[in-house]
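Researcher: For the annotation table, I need structure tokens for Probable membrane transporter protein. Please keep the output clean. Sequence:
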Amino acid sequence: MDLNLEFLIIISFIIFVSALVHGTIGFGFPMLATPLLAMVTDIKTAILYIAIPTLFINLISIYSEGNFFEAVKKFYPLALMGMIGSAVGTQILIYSNSEFFKLLLAFSIFSYLFIQKFKIHITWIEKKKRLSIVVFGLLAGIVGGLTNVMGSILIIYSLESKHSKKDIIQSTNLCFLFGKIIQIILFTMHGSFNEELLIVSFSTLIVVVIAMIIGLNIKDKIPQEIYKKVIKLVLFLMASFLVYQTI
């Protein structure tokens, strides 16, 4: 799509809404922005448009919860696994179509919600913490590299690990951050970025700042239990949207 006022308005609106949701619940920006942008362009281009805003949002989200370096120290093993997986997924995305992987992602979300509904717990996540970090980190990274949506898998891991709201926000955003860094490096090496993409990405940062400020103010007023219910609702809605968009 050519760079014009209409497209700038569309992408700014999508980024504002997605960043507002992300600021409010601590995740959701790429999960919302990618499929919405993919409706007016292809998925690879959509990922490229929001690459820089995503990095910015991840940093804000981690920092807003406090103890930035403690969060890095605590969750860097998961983030490193996510980075490795993201490198694999991005390489596949560069050379192939990832529509099929959206259905796999939606299926994984619905499966988790089914497990939660009937109180079936994935007990091995807590019992085998190192293995779960490797499995969920790599899986989230690969899916994130292919679809730009790794949040659902990381949230499954975080909820089953009984992480606090702060831990969920910091761990998922750190993984996003590491995964996005390697993704940007690989896209740059492949020559995927151009002047138009960079102009659009940087021009939307002011929209991101405004939306995040509003969202963060809302987040502080959400109790822990309501927060987890909101997470599950968002997961269901996004899984349904991914299926709808693919078929």
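Researcher: And a one-line annotation?
Model: The chain has a mean pLDDT of 83.
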